[in-house]
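Example 3.2
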Amino acid sequence: MSGASHVFLAATGQNRGKTTVSLGLIAAVLRRGLRLGFLKPLGQRYLVIDGTRADEDAVLVRQVFDLPDALNDMSPVTLPRHFTTDFIMGRIDDPLETQVTDAFARIAADKDLVVLEGTGHAGVGAVVGMSNAHVAAMLDAPVIVVSEGGVGRPIDEIVLNCALFAERGVRVLGAIVNKVDVASHPALPEVLRRGLAQQGVELLGWLPYSRLLAKPSLELIVTHLHGELLSGMATPGQTIGDVAIGAMHAGHAMELLTDRTLLITPGDREDLVLASLAANRLSPETPKVTGIVLAGGFHPSAPVLAELRRSGLFTYLVETDTFRTAQAVAEILVKTHPSDTDKIATIIDLVAESLDVDGLLARIAG
């Protein structure tokens, strides 16, 4: 590959796997010794790092791969609260297009490839004149559309997004489908390939569903649920496996415990708490229970709490009932964070094994 190539990774919506593809592709490019740049032209979810407002995905990529570019170049435009209203009402004078094109020029100057990551679907950002489709056209970037598994919905969504890019004159290289459950539906990749081909879209690759990538960490449990940490730590990067609802006899509940289970149970079900501790003692190398969420605001007794603290088992007390608590856990938007080292390693391996990276790079360069 010679000269600075660039590609725009778009998605059909939120939480489809765009950042997963970005991380895996970037790792593969760096392994090939290529000079890489990353740009998130428009950021909606941002952090403030050393006084610089930057999209969280730009922060993630910069930290994971130790990229040298300035954060305000990697994330030139972010949308703080009320920005869209102020823009519509004519109270924003910032030259957004210029900020993006200038940042892109600085990042691309000494690179072999620049990965541009969009925000949401093709139309996101249109409210401030910076939709993904507009930005891709402005930077003359070919697009790869990322969607998630299924049949009807991903194909419909991919076709819809491709239409908006096409309207702007953007070249769509094809689609990558994430979270494909080949274990239950082995023929799904071929169905997707044929279904997309019938709509004039090439399936560039697919990533299998990974339970690890779909589950939140203990850190996210604490971040999203209002409560009190009674024992253990909300260890960054420690991902839960399955979620079990403890509302039955302890003996029956223990049958639900697999690997790294998060047990949600009323705080007064001390039999389940003690049974969880016993289960972990039987398999100290691979604990079955990675944490307990005690629902209903019921504090365990002093002896049981002392047992929990001696074990160091993550135990979190919330006021909501068991059903609402389980619902809140299920609704957590799982995003990859720099501390999620196991997830990031899994993503990198998954992309390397599943996608024809050299083929993708050839398409991008062409």
